[in-house]
């Protein structure tokens, strides 16, 4: 039995959902239909997604405490090739502030409440009691790993774990990317742009929110396509406001998208439209 498998089994018996990592600190490849969570995998550990692939799947959502899965044939090859064990912090109500270098550690010591600390190769993991939305690059060298994310298991750490502070939660509060008008679309013959009609614009935003909210699979793709559709119709005449974008971002985040993913999807849609 490999050392990683032994560690995983010990963690699972303590209620910590685990999964194997390969070289590069990344999960073993998902099936083609579920790669990059394309099938809309959910954060439920027992039913990670509405797919027919062999389970476990979906990277972080594959994390489990089921010893039959951990030590069974599904992961037998993975443990032989594994370079580390990962766990799902949000699955046990924890948040990991991943500090990737010395400057980030110095910042945390000045700004964040003391808590349990685990040394890493280049920095530290600060672990708080309480789960939140995950986000990468919230500031230089700082990632938040909690819900819908995984972190390497590097030992229990030292110090007393404290409650998740507002200072950490505030790190992922971001404003949506502003909508920059490109060229005004004025109806032939002059007159006011039809997008400025409150009913027309409101209907478009409401339909977009509904499309995202009702997505049962391929959430990433649905969010991007919806952003693209909204921007293609309403984005060139200056009618969209930050408030409209915020509504779409909120709908996407309710489906599990992170602020960063929302911002990236919005930016990619603008780029695709030449905006």
Q: What tags apply to this protein structure?
A:
275 residues, alpha+beta, 3 domains, 5-stranded antiparallel sheet, 4-stranded antiparallel sheet
Structural description of this entry:
The longest helix is centred in the last third of the chain and has 16 residues, at 198-213. The strands form two sheets. Strands 5-6-4-8-7 form a five-stranded antiparallel sheet. A four-stranded antiparallel sheet has the order 2-1-3-9. Helix 6 packs antiparallel against helix 7 (219-234), helix 6 (198-213) runs parallel beside helix 8 and helix 7 (219-234) packs across helix 9. It folds into three domains: 3-87, no CATH class; 90-171, no CATH class; 194-272, no CATH class. It has 275 residues and is α+β, with helices and mostly antiparallel strands. The chain has nine helices and nine strands.
Give the helices and strands, then pairings:
Blueprint: H1 3-13, E1 18-22, E2 26-27, H2 67-70, H3 76-81, E3 84-87, E4 94-99, H4 102-111, E5 116-119, E6 124-129, E7 135-139, E8 142-145, E9 151-152, H5 166-169, H6 198-213, H7 219-234, H8 242-254, H9 259-272
Antiparallel strand pairs: 1-2, 1-3, 3-9, 4-6, 4-8, 5-6, 7-8
Helix pairs in contact: 6-7, 6-8, 7-9
